[in-house]
Hints:
The protein is α+β, with helices and mostly antiparallel strands. 20% of the residues lie in helices and 50% in strands.
Amino acid sequence: MNYEIVNLEEKTVVGITARTGNNDPECQKIIGGLWQDFMSKGIWESMKNKANEYCIGLYSNYDFADMTYDVTIGAEVTEADTELNIKKIPGGKFALFKVKGDVVKDVSQAWERIWSIPLDRSFAGDFEEYVSNENGIAEINIYVSLK
């Protein structure tokens, strides 16, 4: 799977958060439920100070003792004026993977391949940036934080 190395500035993301992990049998259900709530309950529409029109799926606060992490569904903002959860993505070096296809199937398959690549990961904050979605075909950038 091809990727490029990019440097990003710190980002502030606000949204809704849940805790899960790759070994959690409910992982996909939890993440899917967050996306459902985010899109159907008017959270996206009510967000203030969005930096762009991209939805973000952020994975942070990794705990390797039980292989869990926080999942935040939200958006990058210029100012965090909200009652939603506020998360920071530290600036630094990231591996950028570009995915085009189904937001569930193709993103899930991309993550399976990413986990098998020997990247020098920092686990400071990995995220999906949903750039577009037309007729069921989405463009998604997956950023994996590196040391």
